[in-house]
Design brief:
- The protein is 67% helix and 4% strand.
- The chain is mainly α.
- The chain has one domain.
- The protein is globular and about 60 Å long.
C-alpha cells in the first residue's frame, strides 16, 4: 500500500510538472485559434454603421496565452541563460511599441488595439521558445479537421451546425457570404471551416500544409494522407492569394531542399510528384470552380484596389506618425460613399499599408527592419552546414515565411483579426527562435 501511494504521488507530480502543464496549455492554445466564439464586450460602430472589426471581444485564446506565458516565464526564470537571447532580438519590437505610444496620435479606438498589440508581442516572446515540431504536429491535425469541415461545407453548400465552435451561418443565398458566381446563375459558397472568412481559413491551412510537409520529410510519408485532405480543404476556400502563396512555398521549399541536399534527391522528386497528383485530383473535382477564380476581372479585385487606394490616401495625410493604432477604419469611413452598407467599411487589404496608415513611416520602417532581420538571419543560417534535421526545419520555416509575406500583400486578417494575428505572431516567434536556438544549442522547452 505504501509503495502504491508513493507511485501515485510520483505520477501526480509528473502530471503537474511544468513541461506537462506547458505542453497541455500550448496545444489547447493552438486549438483555441480555431474556436471563433468569444465573449462580446462591446459592439463597434462608426456613426450608425456596425463594424465587426471594431467589436471588443475576449476569446479563450486570450486567457490561454496568459497562462502559457506565465508557465513559460517560470521556466525561463529557472534557465536565465535562455533569456539572454531576448536582448538584441526584441529591440526593434520595443521601439515599435514606443513609437506607437508616444508618437502616434490618440484616437477613438486606441486602447483596445494597444492592449491587443501588447498581447501579440507577448505571443511572440512566448513562442520564441517553442519547438517547431510540436507546433507543426498540432497544426497538421487541426488542419485535417478544418479541411474536412470545409470540404463538407462546400459540397453541402451551407454550414453544418458547428456554431458552438464559431462556424458562421452560411449558405448560397445569404448576403455577405463569400461565393462563386457560376455561368448558369448558380451561386456556390466558398468554405469557411470554423473561421470568419475563407481567406482566414486558407491562411491557416497554408501553415498546416507546410507543417504537414515538414512531418512528411522528417518522419514518414504516412503524413501524406492528412496532407491530401489539407490540400483539398485549402482548394475549397478558393482563395487566389492562398493558391499563389502555396505555389511559392512549394517551389522555394523544393529548390532549397535540392540545393542544400537536406534529403535524398529521389525522395524530393517522388514527394513533389505526389503533390502534383494532389493538384491533378483537385482540378478533376474542383476545376470548373477554380477557373472562375482564375480571373482578376471581378468585383472583389476592384474592391481591393479601392481599399488600397484609400490606404495610400490615408498615409499621405498622416505620413510621419500615422493616424494612431486602431484608427484606420475611421479614416476609411470618411472616404466611402455615405449610403454604402456596413460591410463596405474595411481596411486596406495590405498589411503594410495598414501599418503605415496607423503608425506612419516610422512604424513601417521599424516593422520592415524587424522582418528584414528575420530574413537575413535565415539567409545566413541556410548557407551554413548543420544537422540535416535542423536544415530541413529551417528550409520549411523560411519557405513558409516567404509565402506568408506574400499573403500579407492581399489581405488584412493578420493585422486586425485577433485570432489570425495571434497565429501570425506565434509563427514569427517560432521562426525567429529557431535560428537562435540553432546558434546557442539550447534544450527545447517543449521536447
Amino acid at each position: 500500500m505504501k509503495q502504491f501511494l508513493i507511485n501515485l504521488n510520483n505520477h501526480i507530480k509528473s502530471l503537474l510538472s511544468i513541461k506537462v502543464l506547458y505542453n497541455s496549455c500550448l496545444i489547447l492554445f493552438l486549438i483555441s485559434l480555431t474556436f471563433w466564439h468569444g465573449k462580446l464586450i462591446h459592439f463597434g460602430f462608426i456613426g450608425n454603421k456596425s463594424v465587426d472589426l471594431l467589436n471588443t471581444i475576449i476569446y479563450p485564446s486570450d486567457i490561454l496565452l496568459v497562462l502559457l506565458s506565465i508557465i513559460s516565464l517560470v521556466y525561463l526564470v529557472k534557465n536565465v541563460d535562455r533569456a539572454l537571447i531576448y536582448r538584441n532580438r526584441f529591440t526593434l519590437i520595443i521601439l515599435l511599441i514606443l513609437t506607437i505610444y508616444f508618437l502616434a496620435p490618440r484616437g477613438t479606438y486606441n486602447l483596445y488595439y494597444e492592449i491587443r498589440l501588447i498581447e501579440y508581442i507577448l505571443c511572440f516572446i512566448t513562442f520564441y521558445h517553442v519547438e517547431y515540431h510540436i507546433f507543426a504536429k498540432s497544426l497538421y491535425y487541426l488542419g485535417i479537421v478544418e479541411s474536412l469541415i470545409a470540404i463538407i461545407q462546400f459540397h453541402l453548400k451551407h454550414s453544418i451546425g458547428l456554431h458552438f465552435f464559431g462556424e458562421p451561418l452560411i449558405n448560397a443565398y445569404t448576403d455577405g457570404v463569400a461565393k462563386i458566381d457560376m455561368p448558369n446563375g448558380l451561386k456556390v459558397i466558398r468554405a469557411y471551416g470554423t473561421f470568419n472568412h475563407p481567406n482566414s481559413l486558407s491562411a491557416f491551412l497554408l501553415l498546416a500544409f507546410a507543417a504537414g510537409l515538414f512531418l512528411v520529410y522528417k518522419n514518414s510519408p504516412k503524413y501524406f494522407i492528412g496532407l491530401f485532405f489539407i490540400f483539398l480543404g485549402l482548394i475549397t476556400t478558393f482563395s487566389r492569394a492562398a493558391y499563389l502563396s502555396l505555389f511559392i512555398f512549394i517551389v522555394i521549399a523544393t529548390i532549397l531542399l535540392f540545393v542544400k541536399k537536406t534529403v535524398e534527391t529521389k525522395k524530393i522528386i517522388v514527394y513533389t510528384a505526389i503533390i502534383l497528383v494532389f493538384f491533378g485530383c483537385s482540378l478533376a473535382v474542383y476545376g470548373k470552380y477554380m477557373s472562375k477564380r482564375a480571373t482578376i476581372e471581378d468585383s472583389s479585385t476592384y474592391e481591393r484596389i479601392q481599399y488600397d487606394e484609400y490606404g495610400v490616401s490615408l498615409f499621405k495625410n498622416h505620413w510621419l506618425v500615422g493616424s494612431g493604432i486602431g484608427n484606420i477604419l475611421y479614416g476609411v469611413a470618411k472616404l466611402v460613399p455615405k449610403d454604402s452598407p456596413d460591410w463596405v467599411i474595411q481596411p486596406p487589404h495590405n498589411y503594410f499599408e495598414i501599418v503605415s496608415g496607423e503608425t506612419g513611416i516610422i512604424g513601417l520602417i521599424i516593422f520592415l527592419l524587424f522582418l528584414l532581420k528575420i530574413f537575413i538571419d535565415y539567409a545566413k543560417a541556410l548557407r551554413d552546414r548543420g544537422p540535416t534535421q535542423k536544415q530541413l526545419e529551417l528550409t520549411i520555416l523560411f519557405s513558409t515565411f516567404i509565402s506568408i509575406l506574400l499573403m500579407m500583400q492581399f489581405d488584412h486578417y493578420f493585422y486586425d483579426v485577433p485570432l489570425m494575428a495571434l497565429l501570425f505572431w506565434s509563427f514569427l516567434g517560432i521562426i525567429s527562435g529557431a535560428v537562435s536556438r540553432r546558434k546557442i544549442n539550447a534544450i527545447p522547452l517543449s521536447k
